[in-house]
Amino acid sequence: MNLMGRVFGRAGRATAGADVSTQAGRRGPALASFMRGNRGPVFQRWNPAARRSQDEIGASWKLATARAVDSIHNSGWLAGAIDQATANTVGTGLRVKPQPETVVLGMSKAEAREWVRLVESRFELWSRNKRVCDIEGRRTFGEMQATAFRHWLATGEMLGEVAWRVRDQSPTGTKFRLICPTRLSRRSALHEGLINGVRMDADGLALSYEIRPNREEWNPNAFRTIPAMAAYGRARMVHVFSGPPETCRGITPLAPVLQVVRQFDELSDATLSAAIIQTLFAATITSDGATEDALEGLMTSQERARMVSDGITPMEVYLEAVADFYGDGIFDTRLNGRVSHIMPGQKLDFKAAEHPNGNYPDFSKMLLREIARCLGMTYESASGDHSNASYASLNNGNSEVFEVTKARRAHLVAPFSQPFYEAWLEEEIERGDIPFPGGIVGFLTNRQAACRADWRGAARPIADETKKAKAHSVWRAMGVMSEQMICNDLGFDYEDVLADMEEAQTLRLEYGVPEPTLIGVGGGNSPSGSENDDDDSDSTEDDDG
Q1: What distance in Å separates the CA atoms of residue 496 and residue 476, rounded to the nearest whole number?
Q2: What residue spans of 129-156 are helical by DSSP H?
Q3: Residue 242 vs residue 291, higher pLDDT
Q4: Phi and psi at residue 256, in whole multiples of 5°?
Q5: Closest Cα to residue 114, out of 490, 437, 481, 482?
Q6: Is the pLDDT of residue 316 over 80?
Q7: Bridge partners (DSSP) listed for residue 239
Q8: Between 176 and 542, where is the model more confident?
Q9: Residue 47 confidence (pLDDT)
């Protein structure tokens, strides 16, 4: 049977309403509906294995972390971008704003405001004292937040212990112990429920953690098991990461661009090396004669006379000059402009450096953009290059990237900071330094309602303060935004602003300073007497005459 007969013969034997996949299975593998080019050269050797996310992380974590740390240590671009990303997300530290559930706790609004002020002031004293909040006595609470976020950028994880240590110079026992995620064991024992150093129950809830000792050379096989929770709901270990479902460990967010970081370094090194080589060897000689004749033609009469008196060859003179050049490491410019006669048939050709070429800036920017995007930053913020940026592009870029910053604050830094705040508040209430309805028993009963809090950082960067102020003024006049919303948008606490205004008013009365004149508020006119002196206004007066 010929080809057409076999094709139509098979088609004729297919019964009406038969399963198409069954027919295709008898004919051979069918093309995937989402990858119709599966048999082409693009997908030919692209056959990754579909494994569990935790298996992927477990197999790649150690090498990815080592490469990320090495890149941060040895790349100025990446180190600066890490600093900027940390400053954007954490800054000098996220500030806690208690938000207790007053209905559950039985507090009035006035009582809640007074309680919040007391908690804020006392937590500020604790968090700013290194010897009080840090068990090592080295960092403030804000510095530990920033360090933990740096660990997340390098390892994909933030790890800390809610420790307890009573010292003479420390009024509280609650301490923050920052732990490098590399100390968290990678050991797995499925019969124990242990996966990569995290022991979990049947539902995947973390029960305890295996921590390596501080000095692995003492006993590399010794681990310290720390429970995830202590009695009465007090946290012991804080482990924060971002990852797919059914994972118990994270991986560095730089993993997708580690190859790009390496390529950028290699591109920079290769370009610089090529430029240096072309600068050092910028002239070539084309000659039909011997090499020594060509070299002798470049010498002055004094150099040739010295060569004859010393009894050396032109090649030896050349090699000696090269040795002197590389030995001293300097350029001798005392004979600039010297012109020597060369031998007949020789041609002296001076070369111009061709590196970096015209494509290098665009290509390097493309690599930096990919790295910046992975870090959740704009290219301008990561590189410091604002040469081609406009107000509109900066404003749009800051608005989009700031959403990433807010998400990282809410999903990473805040969950990492909250358990330490809760442990500190529990101790303060138990010691009687902070009053609470029902005392420590009431707090333990209503821990979640009492410990509810927001963690606030710096506001979104503003490219033009004047335009932002005008936008706030318009929204305020329309009744869309309140003063409190404007303060939140600027990164200020509304109650702090009112307290500062009250204090400023009191000081003005004490020193006899008049109140500032508010232009355009309450029907007031501007100093020029016009009701509207906005330079950007394009309104015109109607001419009735």
Answers
A1: 20
A2: 130-133, 141-155
A3: 242
A4: -65, -20
A5: 437
A6: no
A7: 159
A8: 176
A9: 82
Where does the pLDDT of residue 85 fall: very low under 50, low under 70, confident under 90, or very high at 90 and above? very high
Write out pLDDT tens, residues 317-329.
766 765 665 455 4
Compute the distance between CA of residue 456 and CA of residue 492 in angstroms, rounded to an integer. Answer: 9
DSSP 257: G
At residue 32, φ and ψ (nearest 5 deg) are -65, 140
What is the C-alpha to C-alpha distance for residues 457 and 492, in angstroms, rounded to an integer?
A: 9
Task: Note the Cα 93 to chain centre separation in Å.
Answer: 15
Distance CA(152)–CA(252), nearest Å, equals 7
- Are the CB atoms for 157 and 68 separated by under 8 Å? no
pTM of the model: 0.73
262 or 16, which is more confident: 262
Ramachandran sector of residue 479 (left: φ over 0; alpha: ψ -120 to 50; beta: rest): left
Rounded Cα–Cα distance for residues 92 and 85 (Å)? 13
What does the buried/exposed string (b/e) look like for 392-405 if buried means 16 or more CB atoms within 10 Å of the residue's CB? eebbebbeebbebb
> Within 10 Å of residue 219's Cβ, how many Cβ atoms?
10
d(CA 375, CA 371): 6
Measured distance CA(463)–CA(147) in Å, rounded: 28
Instruction: Give the separation between CA 318 and CA 483, rounded to whole angstroms.
Output: 79
Name residues whose C-beta falls within 8 Å of residue 345's C-beta, 6 or more positions apart in sequence: 287, 288, 289
Return the pLDDT at 498: 87
d(CA 209, CA 281): 60
Give the DSSP letter string of 45-67: T-------HHHHHHHHHHHHHHH
* The predicted structure's pLDDT at residue 174: 95
C-alpha to C-alpha distance for 172 and 133, rounded to whole angstroms: 8
Please give the full DSSP string across 332-395, using - where no structure is assigned.
--TTTT------TT-EEEEPPP--S-TTHHHHHHHHHHHHHHHTT--HHHHH---TT--HHHHH
Strands of 194-195's sheet, edge to edge?
A: 194-195, 198-200, 206-211, 224-227
Helices (H), 168-313: 258-280, 291-297, 301-310
- Whole-number pLDDT of residue 357: 64
Question: Which tokens sit at 464?
Answer: 């033009």
First to last CA, the chain: 99
Q: Return the DSSP state at 94.
A: P
Residue with tokens 């429970």: 227
Average pLDDT estimate for 222-238: 91
Report the pLDDT value the prediction gives residue 307, as an integer from 0 to 100: 78
Paired tokens of 542 = 């109607």
Cβ proximity of 296 and 304 under 8 Å? yes
Indicate the DSSP class of residue 95.
E
Which of 350, 392, 420, 407 is CA-nearest to residue 142? 420
CA 505 to centroid of chain Cα atoms: 42
Q: How far is CA 114 from the centre of its chain?
A: 37
Question: Which two tokens mark 249?
Answer: 């460990």
- Side-chain-side CA neighbours of residue 36 (13 Å): 1
Region 435-459 average pLDDT: 93
Measured distance CA(364)–CA(226) in Å, rounded = 46
Rounded Cα gap, residues 194 and 181, in angstroms: 17
